[in-house]
Amino acid sequence: MLRARLELETPEASVMLASLLPELGRELPRTRVSADVAEGRLVMDIEADDSTSMRAALNSYLGWMKITEDISGLIGE
Fold first, then answer.
1. Predicted pLDDT at 29
2. Band of residue 55 on the pLDDT scale cut at 50, 70, 90
3. Measured between alpha carbons, how far is 37 from 20 in angstroms, rounded to an integer?
4. How far is CA 60 from CA 5, 38, 42, 56, in A?
5. Which of 45, 56, 57, 70 is spaced 20 to 30 A from 29 at the CA atom?
6. What's the pLDDT at 61?
7. What is the reported pTM?
8. CA–CA distance from 35 to each of 6, 7, 16, 51, 73 (Å)?
């Protein structure tokens, strides 16, 4: 079992979590993901059965986080 923890300190932590909730409810093969906001940080824990699943989950969630950040910047929040 592989484990990763992402901690992103951002003023948009709660907005980012809200935007990720639909994806968090989706099942990824061989992967479990949880996320929360704590002390102004988005904290995400990822567990995967193998390195391929971990890489896929990290790529997906980091991409969605980047999109959220870009959109937030465009609308000025």
1. 87
2. very high
3. 12
4. 14, 22, 16, 6
5. 70
6. 93
7. 0.85
8. 9, 10, 10, 20, 22
The pair of three-digit structure tokens given for residue 68, joined into one six-digit string: 């959220």
Place of tokens 């890489």: 55
> What is the rounded distance in angstroms from the CA atom of residue 40 to the CA atom of residue 62?
18
Lookup: tokens for 62? 């980091």
What is the set of domains in the chain, with CATH numbers? 2-66 (3.30.310.50)
DSSP character at residue 27 = P
Query: CA angle, corner 2, sides to 55 and 18, nearest 5?
Result: 65
Closest CA to 38 of 5, 69, 7: 7
Q: Are 61 and 33 in contact (CB under 8 A)?
A: yes
Q: What are the tokens at 52?
A: 């391929």
